[in-house]
Amino acid sequence: MHIVWSTFGIQLVAFLILFWLLKRYAFGPLFGIMEQRKALIQSQLDNAENSRKQASQQLEEQKQALQQARKEAHDIIEQARATSSKQADDIIGTAKSEATRLKDDAVRDIDSEKNKAIAALRGEVGGMSVAIASKIIEKQIDEKSQEQLVDQYLKEVGSK
Amino acid sequence: MDHIAPIVHKWGMEFDLAAIFMIIVTSIIVFVLARVCVRGASVDKPTKMQNFLEWVIEFVVGIIGTTMDFKKGKPYLTLGLALIMYIFVGNMLGLPLGIVSEAHHGATIFGMELDLGGEEEGHIAWWKSPTADVAVTAALTIVVILLTHIEGMRRNTKHYFKHYFEPYIPFLPLNLIKEVSKPLSLALRLYGNIFAGEVMIGVIVGGLSWAGVIPLIVWQAFSVFVGTIQAFIFVMLTMVYMSQAIVHEEKH
C-alpha cells in the first residue's frame, strides 16, 4: 500500500472547500426553506384549528338563533290565536248586546205605542159615551122613539 | 497486467494525478447535484429534485437521530450530508468505466515525467473511485476524528478527559489504542471495500474478457450495494463517534 501524501492534503482541502460550498450555496438555503415550511405548516394547522373552533361556535350560535326564532314564531302564533279568539268573542258580545238593545228598544216602542193607543181609545170611548149620553137625553121624550133610537144605535154599532 | 497510478514528481513531492482529477470531478458532481436540487426550491411547492435532496437530508437526520439526541447532533447535519454525498458519489464513479492508458519509460504529462516505478512500461488507470485511495479516505477520516475530539473537548470537557482513565487509571493505554483504532478502522474499511471492488472489476475484465460480462454485471451490482452501504456506515460511525465524544451519560 503506497500512500501518496499529497493526495491526502488535496483531499483534505477539497473536502473542506466542498463542505463550505455546500453549506453556503446548497444546504443553508434548503434548511431555511425547510424551517419556513415547518413554520408554514404549523401556522396552517393553527389556522385550521381556529377555523374549526370558529365554525363549531358559529354552528352553536346558529342553532340557538334557530331555536330562538322557532320559539318566537310559536309565540307569535299563540298570540295571534289568542287575539283572534278574543276578537271573535268581542264581536259576538257586541252583536249580542246590540241585539238585546234593539229588542229592548222594540219592546219599549211597542209599549209606548200600545199605551198611546189605549189613551186614544180611552179618549174616544169617553167622547162616544158623552155623545151617547147626550143623544139619550135628547130622545128620552117618548118611549117609542127611545126604543127606536136604541135599535138604531145598536144597528149602527152592529154595522160598524 | 497491473494498473498503476499516474504519479509525477514536483517540488520534491509525489502527486497522483488520477486521484487529484477524481477528487475534483467528484467534488464538482456533488456540488452541481446539490445546486441543481436547490435551484428553484420553494417553501410550498417543492420541485422533484428538491424532494430528493430533502429525502437525503431526512435520511441523515435519521442517522444522527439514532446515535444521539437530534438537538445535540444538529450542527453535524451538514457534515453528514457532505460526507454521505461525497462518499456515495465517489464510490459509484469507479464502477461504470475505466480509462487506461499505456505509457513507456520517459513519458511526460503537463511537462512532468511519469513515475512508472522503475518499469519500462505500465498501464495507467485514470478513472477510479477517489475513495479507492487510502489517502483520500484517511483525509476524510481525519476531518471527522479531529472534529470529534475538538467537539468532545469543547462541549463535554470534563467527561472527555476523564474517559481516558475509565474505568481505572491503568486503562489509559487501552483507551488510547481505542482512540487510534477509530480513525484507522474508519479509513481502512472504506478504502478496503472500494479498492477491493475495483480490483475485482479489473480481474474480471482482464482475466475473463468476454466470458466475464455476466460476472461483471453481478459484481457491479454488488459494488453498488457495497458502495451505498459503505457511505452509510461511514456517516453512521462518524455520528456514533461524535455522540461518544459529546454526550455525557449519567452514571448512577
TrEMBL record, chain A:
Domain of life: Bacteria
Sorted UniProt keywords: ATP synthesis, Cell membrane, CF(0), Hydrogen ion transport, Ion transport, Membrane, Transmembrane, Transmembrane helix, Transport
Membrane topology field: Single-pass membrane protein
A GO cellular component annotation in the UniProt record: proton-transporting ATP synthase complex
Chain spans, region Disordered: 51-71
Stretches assigned to coiled coil: none
SUPFAM superfamilies: F1F0 ATP synthase subunit B, membrane domain
Subunit structure: F-type ATPases have 2 components, F(1) - the catalytic core - and F(0) - the membrane proton channel. F(1) has five subunits: alpha(3), beta(3), gamma(1), delta(1), epsilon(1). F(0) has three main subunits: a(1), b(2) and c(10-14). The alpha and beta chains form an alternating ring which encloses part of the gamma chain. F(1) is attached to F(0) by a central stalk formed by the gamma and epsilon chains, while a peripheral stalk is formed by the delta and b chains.
Entry similarity comment: Belongs to the ATPase B chain family.
Functional description taken from the UniProt entry: F(1)F(0) ATP synthase produces ATP from ADP in the presence of a proton or sodium gradient. F-type ATPases consist of two structural domains, F(1) containing the extramembraneous catalytic core and F(0) containing the membrane proton channel, linked together by a central stalk and a peripheral stalk. During catalysis, ATP synthesis in the catalytic domain of F(1) is coupled via a rotary mechanism of the central stalk subunits to proton translocation.
Annotated PANTHER family: ATP SYNTHASE SUBUNIT B (PTHR33445:SF1), ATP SYNTHASE SUBUNIT B', CHLOROPLASTIC (PTHR33445)
Protein name: ATP synthase subunit b
UniProtKB/TrEMBL annotation, chain B:
SUPFAM superfamilies according to UniProt: F1F0 ATP synthase subunit A (SSF81336)
Gene3D superfamilies cross-referenced by the UniProt entry: ATP synthase, F0 complex, subunit A
Membrane topology according to the record: Multi-pass membrane protein
Gene Ontology terms, MF aspect: proton-transporting ATP synthase activity, rotational mechanism
Record's keyword terms, sorted: ATP synthesis, Cell membrane, CF(0), Hydrogen ion transport, Ion transport, Membrane, Transmembrane, Transmembrane helix, Transport
InterPro entries found in the cross-reference section: ATP_syn_F0_a_bact/chloroplast, ATP_synth_F0_asu, ATP_synth_F0_asu_AS, F0_ATP_A_sf
Annotated GO biological process: proton motive force-driven plasma membrane ATP synthesis
Principal location listed in the UniProt entry: membrane
Compartments (UniProt record): Cell membrane; Membrane
Transmembrane segments: 17-38, 76-99, 134-152, 190-211, 217-242
A cellular component term, taken from the record's GO annotations: proton-transporting ATP synthase complex
Pfam families: ATP-synt_A
Function per UniProt: Key component of the proton channel; it plays a direct role in the translocation of protons across the membrane.
Record-linked PANTHER family: ATP SYNTHASE SUBUNIT A, CHLOROPLASTIC
Family recorded in the similarity comment: Belongs to the ATPase A chain family.
Protein name listed in UniProt: ATP synthase subunit a
Gene (name only): atpB
